[in-house]
Amino acid sequence: MVRDIIDNSMGSDLIKMSPEIEEATAAMKRFLYNDVYTRPEIDVAVQRSKNLLRQIAEWYTGHPDELMKHIKYPIPEGQSLNRTLVDYLASMTDDFALRRFQEIFVPHYAFPDSKPRKTETKNQ
What we know:
Elements: H1 2-9, H2 19-36, H3 43-62, H4 64-70, H5 81-90, H6 94-105
């Protein structure tokens, strides 16, 4: 698909696909939306993902300085915090969103003077 887009867009003002790849892409989208994304078995996972992202969004809305610490790209002048937050959330992979959720909401304890305990292993 990528190679086709490159080949069909070279020397043009438009980014485009060949008709064959465009039809294959449309068929893939139909399959994904009809047979994968809408399956009842994934409803629970989808709802959990929505809840996780909603909680992260609400937290960053109340802590905009924390959001800005994580933004690694220039923000267009005049762009709202909400737009910046939506862009940030949209860029997250599943694993990254889970890690960020844990960093925000799961307590982390550090004991400054503690040393790891040596575990005793017995030869059996």
